[in-house]
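Lab notebook page, bench 4
Experiment: in silico fold of construct C2
Operator: M.H.
Input chain length: 243 residues
Purpose: comparison with the prior construct
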Amino acid sequence: MAHLQITRFSSTLQTHMNIGVILPDQLPQAPLPTIWLLHGLGENGTCWPTRTTIENLALNYQVAIIMPNVDRSFYMDEVNGLPYWTYFTKELMPEMQHLLPLSSHRNSNFVIGNSMGGFGALKLGFSHPELFSYIAALSPVINLTDIIPIMPDVKRVFGEKIPEDYLQNLAREAKTDDLKTIKWYRTIGENDFLKPANDQFTHFMTKYQIDDNYHVSPGNHDWLFWEKEIQKVLAWLPLKRNA
């Protein structure tokens, strides 16, 4: 696999941003199916290759992996900071699809994220079901009040009041039929402090008849758990495994 680090100036953020990229050594004639791999709080776009075997796993598939950096933004346009959501959806995605041999077809675009990145993955699925066909959230933040003890800069992102039922409200605003066209996958460790909110979210998804394939497995909110789960997610995606 080719492992690239791209640094480009963002007109949206008015600063240089780093993007990690994994590509097959031998590029096919057709545009590549693409995994948008999202990082968690306190991490950046370099965490997945350094904390997991994602590059070795990607050897088994003809797939591109894009690992953006959005700092501590929770994939939001920050109330008292920078517009990272606009950067990701309006600038980064189309620019990467223009720069690299990436497919822009929704059936070939998948989002995976852990923790804060899991929140981002679900947000992308609810907000832009026309762009993605598979969404996988590993130990996702569901209830934003859960992050207050570990995020001293929370007001920079969300302002004075933390939104309640943020993801649920996005789902309510979307067309349910559109959300049903997406394959959803969500997983949490038995000892994860985010498990109660994830359990409750399952009831919400069931109410809206959205099958999100919720899995509870032994583990905590850490990279040991995510390393095991990312293997399951890649096997779940509609990717052709190399012989």
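Observations: Residues 214 and 234 are 16 Å apart (CA to CA). The first strand starts at residue 2 and ends at 10.
Next step: discuss at group meeting.
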